[in-house]
Amino acid sequence: MKIKPTFEKNKITKKICYSIVISLGTMVFIFSYFSYRETTVPDLSFKIIPLIAGALCMIGAWIFDALRIFITVRAWGKAILFRDSLRSVLSAYFMSSITPFMIGGGPAQMYVLGRSGLTWGEAGSLVVVCGILYQVSLLLLIVVFIFLFDIRVALQGILLKLLYTFAIFYSIIMFLLFYFLYRPQVLYRLTNWGINFVKRYFRKAKFSEAAVRAWVEEFFDDFRRGFSILFLKKPQYLAWNLLFYNLRYIAIFMVAFWVLWSLGILVHPIKVIGIQIPLNYIFSLMPTPGSSGGVEASIASVFVSYTAVQRIGIFVILWRIITFYFPLIVGGINFFQTVLKSKPTILPETNKASE
Questions:
Q1: What is the pLDDT of residues 3-23, one digit of tens each?
Q2: What residue ranges are annotated as transmembrane (predicted)?
Q3: Phi and psi at residue 281, in whole multiples of 5°?
């Protein structure tokens, strides 16, 4: 059973507008609140060269992420072009930027990988399993920066509560994932329940029950195989994922260092990176498209102690241009080009992965 996701331009355009409006509104509020609450004149001066370095860091993060996928696909005994790997990354950035809780990145990446020659199950296992490694890599960075570099981050109030909420939510998701891996019959029962529910309450829906069951079983078999490959049979690919994820994180976190430098503020890069690590757990809990609003408020609350009060507004604006609007534009152009492509690019398979 083949499934082709449909992307309606009008809906996507509305989501882009929602995300941008919320982000801009929050930045205007931050700028006006911090810059004008003491009736001081805000200092809007900044240097261009450090901002270019920050943009190059963002591009470097895309390349590290694309290299991770480019290498990991070979664990399934397949090969894709680096261009397709980069497209999957940029598409994920774009869809994450316009969907609540940033949940659109995974399906977008699966879509591009599916067009590049992977089955839906293989693409799904790669995205989900590597999503686990995404969080594990962030946890490793926290451990390294706390115990090796002695970085202390004081999260208080709502930020600390959100971090606890994420820990609970992620623990539940991990438990369900491993439970289904060892008890797939439970998932198949849930599939039957879902089919019966749709038939009872949505009688106009037309679909083949046998095809749905066959697709779920095929998808989950591929998913279990992919999980086994990365964690048991070919752990070297797991190591590659952890390495490139950490390099990606560091590249993105360094954007704030260069933005501070552009404002004439010098903070040690280790400290700049360390204080951002916990925030990335919190960003994924924001219900707004692309976490807009929450991201700006969170980053402002953390970096306001490193900038003068009247400069936090311009810092947030410059940082968000590089980390949000730049990927949004580049990723959006790439995503629509990918959707409009007529045929997927498929390379000859390498040696088959061990079953």
A1: 444 456 667 777 788 788 888
A2: 16-36, 48-71, 92-114, 126-150, 162-182, 247-267, 312-336
A3: -65, -40
Phi then psi for residue 40, to 5 deg, are -95, 150
Q: In degrees, to the nearest 5, what angle opens at C-alpha 255 toward C-alphas 36 and 49?
A: 85
Could you tell me the maximum CA-CA distance found in the chain, to the nearest angstrom? 68
Instruction: Tell me the Cα Rg of the chain.
Output: 22
Between CA 73 and CA 79, with CA 74 as vertex, the angle to 5 degrees is: 80
Q: Please provide the size of the chain in residues.
A: 355
Residues 143, 122: Cα–Cα separation, whole Å: 31
- Spatial separation of the C-alpha atoms in residues 101 and 109, rounded to whole Å: 16
pLDDT for residue 271 is more than 60: yes
Q: According to the model, what pLDDT value does residue 41 have?
A: 61
End-to-end CA distance of the chain: 22
Residue type, 193: W
CB 56 within 8 A of CB 259: no
Query: Among candidates 39, 33, 226, 28, which has minimal Cα distance to 133?
Result: 226
